Amino acid sequence: MGMTNEILFLKLGGSLITDKDQAYTPRLDKLKALALEIKTALDSNPNLLLLLGHGSGSFGHVAGKKHGTREGVQTKAQWYGFTEVRFQAAELNRYVVQALLEVGIPALPFPPSASMVSHDRKVISYNLAPLQKAFTAGLLPVVQGDVAFDELRGGTILSTEDVFAFLAEHFPPSRILLAGIEAGVWEDFPARTRLVKEIQLSDYEKIRAGIGGSVSADVTGGMKAKVEEMLALIQKLEGTTVQIFSAEENGLLTRALSGENVGTLLKG
């Protein structure tokens, strides 16, 4: 696709859009506020192509943990768990898409479980044409953390980052924004006194030791996994930067979408 427009990938983290300590509880006010910030950014920049993704928070992770779905799916009971995780992921997706539609954004869900096949959690097949057409039609495609059939594990859970990693090779984004509740990458998690403003690929090894996991149930691996996955992606995509930041406070998402570096910037 001859994209002269800037493509941005934005992830709304599960911890941001759900109450991670209350199973199956969306933060509806927060979703509404975030939808308005996204609307503002799209209205003020008509050339912006946005791909939105969201985590599973207290929806998918609770069910996923119970069934060990990310590790693999083989038995009848595990396959039942696979469908349960999918159902919960879809429930949250409805809340997200509803919030977007209510502020006038034409959001269209693209659930990975229906179309992506992975091998050891790396997406290997996907029909890109509908996504392509959604962009052309001026729609906002919405992907999410979801279950997927996996050639090695039978089934698994793909994080939003797993999905982004695949799509980024086909629709290279200039920026990937990961919005959560943490202000960025902390040098000393969980003490949280030293925020890392910028991580360059070459310096990563030095600070790696201090980056911890995530506090709540997170079956996809927490901050360390996120940083490493994104750095691996930056290595493949020339010129793409990644921002990890908090969108908890109103206005921070708008600032990030408009190009300001809030939180931690990852670059090649």
Could you explain how this protein is built, in words?
Helix 2 (28-44) crosses helix 4 (76-102), helix 3 runs antiparallel to helix 4 (76-102) and helix 7 (160-170) packs parallel to helix 9. Helix content is 40%, strand content 23%. The strands form three sheets. It has an eight-stranded mixed beta sheet with strand order 3-6-2-1-9-13-14-12, sandwiched between helices. It has a four-stranded mixed beta sheet with strand order 5-4-7-8. The chain has 268 residues and is of the alpha/beta class. A hairpin with an 8-residue loop joins strand 10 and strand 11.
Any idea what the shape is?
globular
| CATH class division | Alpha Beta
SS elements, strand count: 14
Intertermini distance: 25 Å
As for the CATH topology, it is: Carbamate kinase
What is the name of the CATH superfamily? Acetylglutamate kinase-like
Radius of gyration: 17 Å
Largest sheet: 8 strands, mixed
User: What fraction, in percent, of the residue positions are helical?
Assistant: 25-40%
List the total number of helices.
10
CATH architecture: 3-Layer(aba) Sandwich
Mean pLDDT, to the nearest integer, reads 91
Query: What structural class should be given to the helix and strand makeup?
Result: alpha/beta
Poorly predicted runs are none
